[in-house]
Design a protein that fits this description.
Two copies of one chain form a homodimer. By secondary structure, chain A is α+β, with helices and mostly antiparallel strands. Chain A starts with 8 loop residues before the first strand and ends with a strand. The interface between A and B is large, with 46 and 46 residues.
């Protein structure tokens, strides 16, 4: 079987038990965030919105300039919250939370139309507007999130009610969408349904849902343009809409022709995720070719070092190549969550660190900052520089990010491990136990012992009922210069095993076999391509997968006066209990002396510099202590 | 007489004839801009708006979130346009333009109410709203601009009609405003009337107009707060307004208590200008003390190196100390024009280069960029960095900047020279001839021969009917290290003559006496206070009063890859005919090699650098050739 014909699928969430770093984060979500999400959805009126025994709430959030209300997406918020609860229930039973989720599912059951349609807004607020504006109104997007919730809840609890509801809805969609007489050859302005249908197909084993997903993918951006015809049918001027370009929803050309990442960042990530799933399931090389071009475009021209993407607030998305402003970065939490989704699905056709390295980068530095350490507050935007006014909020009129980062954290196990026939790939490291069954019937247990990402030593213990042959592929991140590997104490030459950045150990394994991997974690400078004007003359510091930053609480104000010398001095690591045992780094850099500068605003002589002790902390943990300035890209000498 | 008891007043505009640098700019305005202003005011509907024989245009520009329409300020646009025409007529008779101005003045005469009131909006669109909302509606602001026009037009043409109209209006104001029974103890939300009344007083010799100006200055920000009481009287919630703070219009505290420059930048500059006039006219030390504090606050914490002020678009004004973003700088042309006004008036109590240096800096680099070389297009915002999308426009819904820079250019002679009893101060250099009469009756002619600002050699020839004793004070800019001075060929030790940065030559002068001043113009680096985070690690280059910049048309793209070495290399000056003979500077700097960087967005090694020939041009001339990127603050090695 050729390299690209493999089909790696993530292991299910229940197959992995986390402790260590991710275990702590999962506890925060399970014990705190999950309930908060429901509380805040309820406070916003979302339960009333789906309860047919209560009066319709009407328009609670006014119609915005783009022609809709964020209230139209309430189903998606409830969907992602239920999904988070489902994942949380794996970690820790919580009868109260489960009962609340069951109650919501009961309401959805009563709300669902006889024909299968299900949407709080278009059944209760604007019932005459069903399927009239796919471009702007997020109907299929909402459906997709409820489908993802249904799959997760079924896997977590064995309860089929929501899954059945969503299968009925999907079956109804199969009658509505298509190229047949009286059908709509359309697709949603905000992608999501594509990847959701793949999950539904995988859990139900129904290929018809895969086919519908592929239909949405194939139709997108084709001519005659669906959004134009839809608008004309609806009596709207097709050119008069808020974002004025179909690039906003990646519907400007057929997806296989797309090579440039454009438009709304979350939409783009969800589309590419769906495309990658379809490429894997159908072994569709034409999609893979487009995806690889888009991947290059994003990661070599449009991505923050944090894995944040979409620099502009105006379109919540992409602008020009190499335009990566730090202080005004939008870099929505959801967009980095979406990048993790996409990267993970790019691994469907085989392990490749090109994707997995970015998945890890976006996970730790782009997505995770969205959640406070206590699981109670959330970032929507993720700037790389702050003058001290940017803080996590408790809720937002468009609360998409909180449940998105929460469901990612609670399902992180399925991003760590993937399985294909007789191969296991480990994409991400972290203390955990994973169980899976291979095609040959062997049940494998992998125990990962590590303090990663704080320490680079990773021990794996293999549990097997009986000896078995399979390949174990371990990602060796590109940054891990000098990585070492040993099997049962015998060193293995990493470079000789390396395929696409993974050490591939294809052998007969015995119960109790041990693999030791060491990924050296050293502080390393990162410089940006000179075309990134905002980072010119600046340097960021990383250690392993983590971007580090400086904060006022450790370093005082005027962080831009810090200068990193050409040779990074030896630093010392410090464990910070108040940040859940995070590893900070103390080192001596230089600092311009603002105090002795004098009164002049400008002068002919640069500021004097002197040595200054500086503390760096992981970027994802900023704004968890006393508020103040924050800076990632520091002056480089 | 003590130093601070002197009263320097600018010479009148007709007393100075310009050639050289400013002569060219005045030609552009007289021959092109002046007519364009009227054309565009007419096209916008402003003539119809004041013509009682035509139907009222109604609300042409919709009411904005701040509760008014920019159409409310149309009188100010017409006022500044007439003022520009008046100043242009000194330079060059233009019967056609004069006839158009006369026609507008006739319309205003017919429009004026019997009681003296005059305002296009509140007589023709909302007649029931007169004097109901001084905070937001700019009635006195509009009046002020018409007064300035009246003074200029009278001085230019000898025609009194507009002057008489505005005196009638001012006389009516004297009945409306005051602390007497039935009078309003108010003042305008947008300052302007204050400085206009001083001009009216000076040209008419009527102290009552000075007193009214002082009344407005004294009332501002006092308690009980006029804006609050006014709102309550008008049935409005006094706290519910767009900017939510009286700081926006510098009405948050009595002006004598103010030490921090806040709010809308143009409003602040116009207020301080009026305060400085009143301080001079009344020898009011309490105002001077506030003004000196405000001056320090602005120039040491809140001013771009261009003399641009007001970094934020949201309030068209000031934000935090040391917050000076370059690419998003608002730095409205009008605000720098206003800073020139204020600085000039700070010289009323005696020459001091502390004010005059900033006046020159803001004039050349903050205000002048507002006008294209051909006088046809205009900048509103003046960023110090552009990715190539910022260009001068032909018109704006709030066209305040075009006539503001035009009237400054055409009246620049009065900013160059000031006279007090037996003293003449030269604040600005430029080829010109000035005539004035001293208190002792001597008529003095000063001929200035120079190619300044391109060359630093300045020759002065004194013309006198008979010998006379007076002091001639010549500004020695702080940047002019090594300046030399000679009288009739005999060197004078500059430092021994220096008072507050002016070389004071107090002697008996003869007809034909010659003074030679040389201000060395060398390229000098400028670094910002380390607290200006946006300029950290960056350097700007100035030559004499001019800020220089790099543009794509000379230097290709990716201007942020240019690195200025620690020691500025010797450059060569180049005269550019396409920029009216401007002096560019060619020199060898360094440049990061974006071409050989490779595909990675980030990497551990900084970019390679190599020597690169770079051309710098004066910042005020950017965007006059092929459009592209522009950058002032370059990477410093």
């Amino acid at each position: 079987m050729s390299h690209k014909d493999r089909q790696f699928r993530p292991v299910t969430v229940p197959s992995v038990t986390l402790s260590g770093f991710w275990g702590q984060w999962q506890d925060a979500v399970s014990e705190t965030t999950a309930a908060i999400l429901l509380d805040r959805c309820e406070a916003a009126g979302m339960i009333q919105a789906i309860d047919v025994d209560q009066p319709s709430p009407g328009v609670v959030i006014p119609i915005a300039p783009w022609g809709g209300s964020t209230q139209m997406f309430w189903d998606s918020d409830l969907g992602k919250s239920i999904e988070t609860i489902a994942f949380s229930l794996y970690r820790k039973p919580n009868p109260e939370l489960e009962a609340r989720a069951d109650a919501i599912i009961d309401l959805y059951e009563k709300l669902q139309d006889k024909d299968g349609y299900l949407n709080a807004w278009f059944q209760r607020v604007q019932p005459d507007r069903r399927w009239t504006n796919l471009r702007d109104h997020h109907e299929l997007y909402c459906a997709g999130h409820l489908m993802e919730a249904a799959v997760a809840y079924y896997q977590a609890t064995g309860k089929r009610k929501l899954l059945d509801i969503m299968c009925r809805y999907a079956d109804y969609m199969l009658t509505v969408f298509g190229e047949g007489e009286g059908q709509m050859p359309g697709y949603d302005g905000h992608e999501e349904i594509e990847l959701a249908l793949v999950k539904l197909a995988r859990v139900t084993g129904e290929p018809k849902y895969l086919d519908l997903s592929k239909f949405f993918v194939d139709q997108r951006g084709t001519e005659p343009h669906f959004f134009t015809e839809e608008a004309q049918r609806d009596g709207r001027d097709a050119s008069d809409f808020h974002q004025r370009t179909y690039e906003y929803g990646q519907a400007h050309q057929p997806v296989r022709d797309q090579r440039k990442v454009v438009g709304h960042a979350v939409r783009a990530m969800y589309l590419y995720s769906g495309m990658a799933d379809i490429a894997t399931e159908y072994r569709d090389d034409s999609l893979t070719e487009a995806l690889e071009g888009l991947w290059d475009d994003l990661t070599t021209k449009q991505m923050y070092i944090t894995g944040g993407i979409g620099p502009a607030a105006s379109n919540e998305g992409f602008t020009d190549y190499f335009d990566l402003p730090n202080d005004t970065a939008y870099a929505e939490t959801c967009a980095s969550v979406g990048l993790v989704f996409w990267a993970n699905r790019m691994l469907g056709r085989g392990p490749n660190r090109r994707y997995a390295d970015v998945m890890e980068q976006a996970l730790y530095n782009g997505a995770l900052p969205g959640l406070a350490l206590d699981g109670k507050t959330f970032f929507y935007e993720n700037p790389l520089e702050s003058t001290g006014k940017h803080h996590r909020w408790t809720w937002h009129h468009c609360p998409c990010c909180p449940p998105n980062i929460a469901r990612l954290v609670t399902s992180i196990g399925s991003y760590m491990y993937a399985v294909a026939d007789d191969e296991i790939a480990i994409h991400l490291y972290g203390e955990s136990t994973m169980t899976c069954e291979l095609a040959n019937g062997s049940e494998v247990t992998l125990k990962q012992k590590t303090e990663y990402p704080w320490d680079g030593a990773i021990g794996l213990e293999i549990g097997l009922g009986s000896p078995a042959r399979f390949a174990l592929s371990l990602r060796i991140p590109e940054w891990a210069e000098g990585a070492t590997l040993a099997v049962n104490g015998t060193p293995v030459d990493v470079s000789s095993t390396l395929i696409d950045g993974y050490a591939r150990l294809d052998r007969d394994w015995q119960d109790g076999d041990r693999v030791e991997l060491v990924l050296p974690l050293v502080l390393r400078p990162q410089f940006a391509n000179p075309r990134v004007r905002q980072d010119a003359g600046r340097v960021a510091l990383m250690r392993g997968p983590l971007v580090y930053c400086v904060e006022t609480t450790d370093n005082g104000d005027d962080l831009n006066a810090i200068v990193v010398p050409k040779t990074i001095p030896e630093g010392s690591t410090v464990m910070l209990p108040e940040l859940n045992g995070a590893v900070a780094i103390d080192l001596t850099l230089q600092r311009e002396d603002a105090g002795r500068w004098g009164d002049a605003l400008y002068r002919s002589r640069p500021a004097d510099r002197s040595d200054a002790r500086v503390r760096l902390i992981p970027y994802h943990l900023w704004d968890n202590r006393t508020p103040g300035e924050m800076l990632v890209w520091m002056q480089a000498d």
